[in-house]
Design goal:
The structure holds two protein chains of two kinds.
Chain A: H1 2-38, E1 42-46, H2 50-56, E2 65-69, E3 76-80, H3 82-86, H4 95-101, E4 106-109, H5 112-126, E5 133-134, E6 140-144, H6 149-152, H7 155-168, E7 174-178, H8 181-190, H9 201-209, H10 220-228, H11 234-239, H12 242-249, H13 251-261, E8 277-287, H14 290-310, E9 313-324, E10 327-340, H15 343-356, E11 363-370, E12 373-375, H16 394-405, E13 410-415, E14 425-428, E15 445-452, H17 455-458, E16 462-463, E17 468-472, E18 480-488, E19 494-500, E20 507-512
Parallel strand pairs in A: 2-4
Antiparallel strand pairs in A: 1-6, 1-7, 2-3, 5-6, 8-11, 9-10, 9-11, 9-12, 13-14, 15-20, 16-18, 17-18, 18-19, 19-20
Helix pairs in contact in A: 5-14, 8-13, 12-13, 14-15, 15-16
Chain B: E1 20-21, H1 26-31, E2 37-38, E3 41-47, H2 54-65, E4 71-75, E5 80-81, H3 83-88, E6 96-99, H4 104-117, E7 120-125, H5 132-145, E8 148-154, E9 166-173, E10 176-183, E11 193-195
Parallel strand pairs in B: 3-8, 3-9, 4-6, 4-7, 7-8
Antiparallel strand pairs in B: 1-2, 9-10, 10-11
Helix pairs in contact in B: 4-5
Classes of the chains: A alpha+beta, B alpha/beta.
């Protein structure tokens, strides 16, 4: 007996030990997982051709385009698109040389304000992926995606998705992910392939070390000094004695090198989006046809939708302004039945409206603005989506119709508490809810206005009911005094006719029992 | 001795195979395949002139359809659909949508949109849609949007071929409305029915 007891005790002890081990293992695993999730990951979106992109995104073709800067003889090409590059145009080239190489070159004056605005829009759009977006570095949008991994997948998956959407917006971007903001920025400038985050500090250091110095945004004097020392890559910089580096190039460089490797804190200011949407698109060449115009409008609508989605907002009114040279801009206000932020739908509505617009002159600039934004929570997607892909909501259908037929051509129907038949109904907004009043013996068709019955027709009618007297409206000078009858015509129609109670006692037809 | 129950007889229409909306008239339901107005298909209603009871024929079905959260679209009606009479027939007025296209082309576009969008439970049309190809397109759109489409047309077009799944010719008689079924799914054209309780 005692032996049995000892055996049972032994079993119990080993079982408890096993359970405790399991729980401990689970706990450690969870803590490790939490740790990786909480780790910061910075995704840098570097826009190497931003100066050209802000102009070229407004049109579909890729004819040669260059952006120039400077005064008089010193005007030089700053950036150019692929079309111009293939023709031999290079950044830094004098304008005369560029035009000699490619006579069909479209030249635009560099517009830094527009570039800044483009970065702001991208930042506002980036808020859809993370709450921490920063515009701290030039031509770069920095996203902290460490907290977004659970929803969107790791930096590579998210990066691919972002790269796709950025190119739909009309920008060229180089992406890189790293544990430090400056590291990500430098890697993205280097144009490295986006890889799965760095497992160890050594691996990250190695990637940084291989970056050439002249691709980074170091001050010209520092770069020059380092070049004179024979230092071409970042890794060689890391190996230099810190003391000497500080004495020769100042503390600034040392701090930046440390920040890139994560040895020095590098707080990033958080981007705060503007309260309303107002963006413009300057077209590189004047546009005459609607199709080309719509291309630009569509780009702006994508911007708008990204802005709205990031902030969980919707809007009911927006406005498209088309600027013409030497003429007042054409303004196209568009109202929607219900607040929305669905890009496809907005594009459809805008397209129908644009096609009806007759342009007084060529368009050189498109502006899209929306001031009245309202909260619009995202809907939960259904697990088993059964609706067809093209299904639209009842409100979207109304907007679609109205955008082609006009607002007045699509209406709802309401009843009005009124005795005079012509005032007992009115056209309302589609879907308007109104109380209904029961009213028997009325025809389903009403004539827009009572039609006099010629005497020879009146003679063929047979009355099928007794008179219903309607006398009302003495207060608003549309006084009626009529006796209504249901009558049957020779052709088989059932009519609603009345006789005026006042001289000359004429007969009228007012409706048909359809 | 009766026939084996599985033997199909031509006088038995395809009862429940096609989606349909009961017309509200038992005598008519019996004659129609699926027992009512075909859903997701075109129905042609041919008449000599308006005012003989063509809308009253549809009212029970429209009243029932207006309970859905979808529109009842009236495209280019010849007169004003009178709100008090519609409400008295039990139609929810907030579901009624009046569409007055200016040009015939816009009207045809609107019909196709209404049918295809899936946001309309019934579409009533008073436009000439004689083109064969156009009718075929409308038929496909009605199928896609699961929508009942009623085309009101002049009875003189009765001899033309049509893609409509159901074709009725209405005639006003002293007792009420005489309905001639010219074409229906799953059976030959039957004898005319007289509806007196419209």
């Amino acid at each position: 007996m005692a032996e049995n007891l000892a055996l049972i005790r032994e079993h119990a002890r080993s079982y408890i030990k096993h359970r405790l081990d399991c729980i401990l293992k689970q706990y450690i695993a969870r803590a490790t997982a939490m740790n990786t999730v909480n780790q910061k990951a910075w995704l840098s979106l570097y826009l190497p051709t931003l100066a050209v992109d802000v102009f070229s995104r407004g049109r579909a073709d890729s004819s040669p385009l260059a952006v120039a800067e400077g005064q008089g003889h010193n005007r030089r090409v700053v950036q150019c698109n692929a079309g111009a590059y293939n023709a031999g145009v290079r950044p830094g080239m004098k304008l005369g040389a560029a035009l000699a190489l490619e006579s069909g070159l479209t030249l635009c004056e560099r517009n830094e304000q527009l570039e800044q605005q483009a970065l702001q829009q991208l930042a506002a759009w980036g808020l859809g992926y993370t709450s921490h977006v920063s515009l701290n570095f030039p031509s770069c949008v920095l996203l902290e995606v460490g907290g977004s991994r659970k929803l969107f997948g790791d930096a590579v998956v998210l990066g691919q998705r972002i790269a796709q959407e950025v190119s739909a917006l009309g920008y060229t971007a180089q992406l890189a992910a790293a544990p430090t903001p400056l590291g990500a920025y430098w890697l993205s400038r280097g144009g490295k392939e986006l890889t799965e985050g760095f497992a160890t500090q050594a691996e990250f250091d190695k990637a940084l070390a291989s970056l050439p110095l002249d691709g980074l945004d170091l001050a010209a004097a520092i770069l020059d000094g380092l070049n004179k020392l024979g230092i071409r890559r970042l890794g060689e910089c890391f190996q230099l004695p810190r003391d000497g580096l500080r004495r020769r190039f100042g503390r600034e460089l040392l701090v930046r090198l440390d920040q890139a490797r994560g040895l020095h804190p590098d707080p990033q200011p958080i981007f705060v989006p503007p309260p309303a949407f107002n963006a413009e698109l300057i077209l590189p060449a004047e546009v005459y046809d609607h199709e080309a115009l719509f291309f630009g409008v569509h780009r702006l609508i994508l911007d708008l939708c990204g802005f709205l989605a990031a902030r969980e907002l919707g809007m009911q009114h927006f406005q498209i302004e088309l600027s013409h040279p030497r003429l007042a801009p054409s303004v196209l206000p568009i109202g929607l039945v219900k607040a929305t932020r669905r890009g496809e739908h907005l594009s459809l509505v805008a397209r129908e409206r644009l096609q009806q617009l007759s342009l007084p002159a060529a368009v050189e600039k498109i502006r899209l603005r929306s001031d009245e934004l309202m909260p619009l929570a995202a809907r939960n997607a259904s697990l088993f989506d059964q609706s067809p892909a093209s299904a639209m909501t009842a409100e979207e259908f109304i907007e679609r119709l109205r955008s082609r037929l006009g607002d007045a051509a699509v209406q709802g129907l309401c009843q009005v508490a009124e005795h005079r038949p012509e005032y007992a109904w009115r056209a309302g907004a589609p879907g308007e809810k109104q109380p209904s009043y029961c009213c028997r013996g009325r025809p389903l068709w009403l004539l827009p206005a009572p039609k006099p019955l010629p005497p020879h027709v009146a003679a063929t009618l047979t009355l099928r009911s007794t008179a219903e007297r309607i006398e009302s409206g003495w207060w608003d000078s549309h006084d009626v005094a009529r006796d209504y009858f249901v009558a049957r015509a020779a052709g088989g129609e059932t009519l609603w006719v009345f006789r005026e109670r006042r001289p000359p006692h004429g007969w009228y037809i007012h409706g048909l029992f359809g | 001795m009766g026939l084996h129950p599985q033997v199909w007889r031509a006088n038995e229409l395809l009862k429940a195979s096609l989606p349909a909306i009961p017309t509200g008239f038992a005598a008519l339901d019996e004659q129609l395949s699926g027992g009512g107005w075909p859903q997701g298909a075109l129905t042609e209603i041919l008449l000599s002139n308006e005012g003989i009871g063509e809308l009253r024929l549809l009212m029970p079905a429209l009243a029932q359809l207006s309970q859905q959260q979808r529109w009842l679209a009236w495209i280019a009606p010849p007169y004003i659909p009178y709100a008090p009479a519609l409400a008295a027939s039990g139609v929810d007025l907030s579901r009624v949508l009046l569409i007055h296209p200016r040009a015939n082309k816009d009207g045809l576009w609107a019909i196709e949109q209404a049918l295809r969008s899936g946001t309309c439970s019934a579409v009533m049309v008073w436009l000439a849609a004689n083109d064969q190809r156009l009718q075929r397109r409308l038929q496909l759109a009605a199928e896609a949007g699961h929508c009942a489409c009623f085309l009101f047309r002049d009875e003189r077009t009765a001899l033309r071929t049509s893609y409509a799944a159901l074709r009725l010719r209405l005639e006003a008689v002293n007792e009420g409305l005489k309905v001639h079924i010219l074409k229906r799914r799953g059976g030959w054209a039957g004898a005319p029915i007289v509806l007196s309780n419209l």
